[in-house]
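In response to reviewer comment 3 from the previous cycle, which asked for concrete evidence that the modeling workflow produces usable outputs, we include below a single protein chain processed end to end. The sequence was submitted unchanged, and the resulting structure tokens are shown without manual editing.
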Amino acid sequence: MFQGSNALTLDAKGRMSIPARYRDALLADERGGLTLTQHPDGCLILYPRSIWETKRAQIAALPASARPLQRLLLGSAMDVDMDGAGRILVSPELRAAAGLSREVMLLGLGSNFELWDREQWEARSLQDVKQLDPAILEQISF
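The workflow returned the following structure tokens.
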């Protein structure tokens, strides 16, 4: 399970270091194989390859009415592999699609990650907190 937020920097080539706390598990379980794709919220989603393969089959099996979602998720998906330094390359196309600048946030969300431009994430997280559903909050004891 991946959790937590990580402030990271994309280098001049668009590479991002996977934080060490995730890197070892991803190398052991996935041999460093990941898949990166667009998310409807405007960020990118980073999946361990085995998780993505299951998701890909689910997405491909959706009815024709889901074609726009299939185009977004499957049409932009790119397999990436960690290099020897634990970095992945975020393609120029995906960086542009998500509006990524040099400063990014990697959020662990259980079985996958979201990758946000840092400024966009800060604005979005404030907006999300304001829109929390009180009924959902009642289901969680803090």
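The chain has one domain: 2-137. We consider this sufficient to address the reviewer's concern, and the full set will be provided in the supplementary archive.
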